[in-house]
Each structure stands twice: as structure tokens, then as C-alpha cells.
Specification:
Layout lengths: L2 E4 L2 H9 L5 E6 L4 H15 L4 E6 L6 H5 L7 E6 L2 E7 L8 H11 L7
Parallel strand pairs: 1-3, 2-3
Antiparallel strand pairs: 2-4, 4-5
Length: 116
């Protein structure tokens, strides 16, 4: 299915919070080396899934989504359903998120991925 880029807080409101489908969100920043390493893993999982995946860039320190969702470390994963944050997995400072952590998070919130 791929990923949806959500570039602004207004787009987040429209494309994530008001979405009729549950959405897995990756909060990330281009300046973060752990995000750079994690993003291809996230994109690959999104391609193999029937679920809805979104990328939210937090490159701008004034982006209100930093505070609204208390994002302290990027990359961080969040699962939204019906406009509500249902589950979250934050990266670890100086470690980011591993492929195993991504798979465990997705396994807890998404239906099983289709076979390749």
C-alpha cells in the first residue's frame, strides 16, 4: 500500500485524525541518523501491508505535533484509530528503533501482513 506523507499539522488532522481507517504513524526527522536508517524498514513494511501507514516529519522544531504527542525521541511509532492515539513505541535515545521492535509493534496493532 505504501506510505502517506503528512507534511503539516493541518494535514495530520485531516489525514490521520479524521481518517476512516486506523493509521500507523512514523514520527521522524531527516536530520536524525537513526530515522534515516529506520525509514526504509518502515517503508518496506508498509509496502507489504494492507494497512494504512503515514510519515510525519518533525524537522521543524516549532511543529506543534512535537508537544501535542510529547515526542521526545525520533523515530517514534504511533497507532491512531478514530482520531485517538491507541498505541505507541518511542525510539531509544542514541539507538532509534530496531526491525524487531517495528515488527513487534505492527504485530500488536495490525492484521497479519499478506504473503510476498
Amino acid at each position: 500500500m505504501g506510505t502517506l506523507e503528512v507534511p503539516t499539522p493541518e494535514a495530520f488532522e485531516r489525514d490521520v485524525l479524521r481518517a476512516p481507517e486506523p493509521t500507523v504513524v512514523l514520527f521522524w526527522a531527516a536530520w536524525c541518523p537513526f530515522c534515516q536508517a529506520f525509514r526504509p524498514l518502515f517503508d518496506a513494511r508498509a509496502e507489504r501491508s494492507d494497512g494504512r501507514f503515514a510519515i510525519v516529519s518533525l524537522d521543524d522544531a516549532s511543529n506543534p505535533l512535537w508537544d501535542r504527542y510529547s515526542v521526545g525521541v525520533v523515530p517514534s511509532l504511533a497507532f491512531f484509530r478514530g482520531g485517538e492515539l491507541v498505541a505507541r513505541k518511542d525510539g531509544r535515545l542514541m539507538h532509534g528503533l530496531s526491525p524487531e521492535e517495528l515488527d513487534a509493534f505492527l504485530g500488536g496493532v495490525m492484521p497479519p501482513a499478506r504473503a510476498p
